[in-house]
């Protein structure tokens, strides 16, 4: 009997595509190439499929969890969806804690995978959700994988996302841009790429003051993810909510790339870089797809 791939088997190996119109004539004249890594092509629809499966499988290997256990996680959306999928595959009860103001599409998708949701006040943000997950763990209500402190998060990007980018660009990548949430993607990819070429520049996208961009965070010092290695990021660029939302609309209309808001923020940063350098190969992470944001009003009805 042939062995057919499972859902787990098709996580990763996502396409890397070149933007054609947004870089404009100036970008082309400078000899720059801007590339988007389509992580929305993963089975649960985002870059978080990689760490979600990694955290569960490696926790199983260590004997920390076993099928039938309850898993608890604070999430702004994509990690929750990915964990809900992974829990469904591996046989876990999944309890997800998320602020009440996040898009309805993401909440509905988590429920579709069988997860249970606890919504927290908008005013408390992700900090309150993280505190509640920790309290539930301390009360013995389940296991917290903790994407913010779990080394299996950046590890999977070191093992898969980084090598894919290197291979897909044939080692030509000069800049890597990623939105920063848990910081797992940027930390793991940076480690791999800089081992291959210390000259690769790693740029993180963070929200400007007052901006609320799903998937991009600037954490207070007390909540800074433990997995984050500041030395792995060469530059932080602030993105406004208006610029990220406008770029999301432009990506869809001018490139046919229907991406989420954090992906658009990373794209905005990549295009800023393309206006400043020459003969560069600039790759950014398209974290997820735009369908998850239709209820937010970012895209025209």
Automatic annotation (TrEMBL):
Residues 7-288 form the Tryptophan synthase beta chain-like PALP domain. Its EC number is 2.5.1.47. Pathway: Amino-acid biosynthesis; L-cysteine biosynthesis; L-cysteine from L-serine: step 2/2. Its cofactor is pyridoxal 5'-phosphate. It is an enzyme of class 2 (transferase). The keyword Mitochondrion does not apply. SUPFAM superfamilies: Tryptophan synthase beta subunit-like PLP-dependent enzymes. Keywords: Amino-acid biosynthesis, Cysteine biosynthesis, Pyridoxal phosphate, Transferase. InterPro entries: Cys_synth, Cys_Synth/Cystath_Beta-Synth, CysM, P-phosphate_BS, TrpB-like_PALP, TrpB-like_PALP_sf. GO terms for molecular function: cysteine synthase activity. It catalyses: O-acetyl-L-serine + hydrogen sulfide = L-cysteine + acetate. It comes from the Bacteria. Belongs to the cysteine synthase/cystathionine beta-synthase family. This is Cysteine synthase.
